[in-house]
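Archive entry. Fields below.
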Amino acid sequence: MRILLVEDDPSLAAGIRLALKPEHYAVDLLADGRQAVAALKGDEPFDAVILDLGLPGLDGMQVLEAVRRRGNRVPVLVLTARDGIDDRIAGLDAGADDYLIKPFQVDELKARLRALLRRSQGQASHVLEARGIRLDPATHSVCCREAPVALSRREFALLQEFLSHPGRVFTRDTLTRLVYGWDEEVESNAIEVHVHHLRRKLFPELIRTVRGIGYVMDKPPS
Ligand code: CA
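PREDICTED_STRUCTURE:
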């Protein structure tokens, strides 16, 4: 899962990134409202946005309005120090999916984010299950046909993307962005290597290569 964090307070941003790191999310940080609108305009894949309201450039509410006006439905969790009910109503009208009032506990942020991602993917439970695989984002555990499987952080993140979107063909580039975000040096064959490991640790036919494009986890036969 790839998260865009838009927060101009460097220490809070660092704290949130640190808290989300063990969750296997790729977290990209921007500190300016205009940059956030630009990032959400292109074809950058993000699974969710954590958006501060008080930002330089454009404030969070303007960012949200601009993003929703273009029809982008990415789930947005708003962070705000202003706890006035008027702000909350305005935020929900502008298309925020959830709210967190500063200061907050990072555990609450993590739980809200998991709920947001789950809702956006239409899942009743946070556990992802398909093709005999069971992945629990809350405990970072994976089982294949009831047997626990140890995965690296990147393998886990990649598997989570496939299980969240059965039948979707991902390009290698999209998967690289989803798993690594912007600011990491990535070997050009990193995704191929992770897919190879997932096939070996789980089972070979789980992830199908789509020649010239990328990879897909086929929907389970109905
Ligand atoms: Ca701020």
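CURATOR_NOTE: The chain has a mean pLDDT of 90.
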